Amino acid sequence: MTNSCLICIVDDDPDVLESTAALLESAGHSTLTYTSPSAFLESDVQECGCLIVDLRMPEMNGLMLQQHLSQRVPDLPCIFISGEGELRVAVEAMKHGAVDFLEKPFAEDDLLTAVQRALERRQAAQEGQAIQCHAAKRISTLSPREQEVLAAVAEGAPSKVIADKFGISRRTVEIHRTNIMRKVGVRNLAELVRLAHQAGSAAGSAPVKM
Asked: What is the pTM of this model?
């Protein structure tokens, strides 16, 4: 799957664009090249599976481009190409989520390895989003009170604490819990807590105490 993703390259140096695209295409990747960040931003950035971008460009530097993209495609992995003496900026890019940075001139194998790592990261993020959406859909079948009870269970609250919190009996809490497990299709509390965390409905990861 990873080799079929589109690699986008942004650099104001046509020679770098051409050589980088040729290398990636020889390894089986599809590429699109852009001579400026604005040209890339005007494209369908959602189709991009990995972005390779020069840190230093006259119109907008790579770090600024990364910040723009964080709102539109937050899971897009970026690889930065930096010149000598740009380590500080490259480190800043890594802090903002860049997968890697390569200093010019870089070895071909280093770029291919970085791209593979970036694509694997994108794939993992997309799979995680799919799991989260599926879990959230299952939880959406619950009533508002059942969702409240589930959140408390996932935070590790005992039945007595949940009962006191919502002004109901412990027996009612247990009935809610049984109905929740039946509705979302889980067999035990461990699966229920895992589902809640996958959906992002749990505030923490404390163990369940029933």
From this structure: 0.61
How many whole angstroms separate alpha carbon 64 and alpha carbon 71?
Answer: 12
- Give a yes or no: residue 117 inside a domain: yes
Does 107 lie in the same domain as 49?
yes
Its domain, for residue 168, covers: 140-199
Instruction: Give residue-wise pLDDT tens across range 56-105.
Output: 888 788 888 888 888 888 888 999 887 765 666 667 766 666 778 888 88
| Omega before 37 within 30 of 0, i.e. cis | no
Tokens 């020889």 sit at which residue? 26
Cβ-contact 196, 153 below 8 angstroms: yes
DSSP count for the chain of H helices, then E strands: 9, 5
Asked if the structure places residue 204 within a domain, the reply is no
